[in-house]
Design goal:
mainly beta, eight-stranded antiparallel beta barrel, 1 helix, 32% strand, elongated
């Protein structure tokens, strides 16, 4: 019984990246989870998984994530609380500000969580796929000379 309690306590100790809420113009908002290698965005228009991209110049290195439809820059501004979204089908960038968290006057600057993001498990193996072995079935000579 105590082993089960310890196992459950260990599972609860595994933390995920915090949800960062951003407020944009026109009453739009989205939540982001930033990891070392990816960002997960959730908003009214759906869910997006962005891979980490190289930062393009600038005074301070920003957290940049992208996919074919959007490029997101996090940690911008003097206090590091702004995000810039560059959509491929919208000519002007969209700037969003991090919303304050309940119980805090000012949200801390944006930073990436200290581990890689969640990845789906690999697909199961195909039961009909051929299996490679080192067994040869032939009448050829097997040996020196």
């Amino acid at each position: 019984m105590s082993a089960c309690a310890l196992l459950l306590a260990g599972c609860a100790a595994v933390q995920d990246a915090p949800r960062l809420t951003f407020l944009c113009p026109s009453d739009l908002r989205f939540e982001a989870r930033l990891y070392q290698d990816m960002a997960l965005l959730e908003g009214l228009r759906g869910h997006a998984v962005l891979e980490r991209a190289a930062s393009q110049g600038g005074a301070a290195p920003a957290l940049v994530y992208a996919d074919p439809t959007v490029r997101a820059h996090f940690g911008l501004g003097v206090d590091g609380r702004l995000a810039r979204l560059d959509y491929t089908n919208i000519p002007a960038p969209v700037y969003c500000q991090r919303a304050p968290t309940p119980g805090a006057a000012e949200p801390p600057p944006v930073s990436a969580f200290g581990r890689p993001g969640p990845r789906p498990p690999p697909p199961p193996p195909d039961p009909n796929a051929p299996i490679e072995t080192n067994i040869h079935l032939s009448d050829g000579r097997n040996g020196p000379g």
